[in-house]
Specification:
This protein is an all-alpha fold. It has seven helices and no strands.
Length: about 110
């Protein structure tokens, strides 16, 4: 619980010095931590952020994949559009497919 609170605070800071600690937790074993990291880094830009977010599109837990989609909605480019299309059509979870369709404007 304490770690989740720290992640949420770091995400709300939206300063460069908070990005490193957030990215370090992107592969944390706890689903809620990974999801909170994605919510926290959604406002950041850069290749590293985009790589971390897109890597979570294949996360084993549906809520993390959905959080990655929501983070990608703020980072529109051709590569993310193709990833969202694939999720909208083929993700095994209905909620994730719906989130991807919503992100694509379907």
């Amino acid at each position: 619980i304490f770690l989740l609170a720290v992640v949420k605070v770091l995400g709300k800071l939206n300063v460069a010095s908070a990005l490193g600690p957030l990215l370090a937790l992107a592969d944390h074993p706890d689903t809620e931590v990974r999801k909170s990291v994605l919510e926290g880094i959604a406002g950041y830009e850069g290749e590293t952020v985009l790589r971390v977010v897109t890597s979570r599109l294949s996360d084993p837990h549906w809520s993390v994949r959905k959080a990655a989609i929501e983070a990608l909605m703020q980072k529109r480019d051709a590569a993310t559009g193709a990833l969202l299309e694939r999720l909208a059509d083929y993700d095994p979870d209905t909620t994730v497919r719906q989130a991807a369709k919503r992100a694509l404007g379907r």
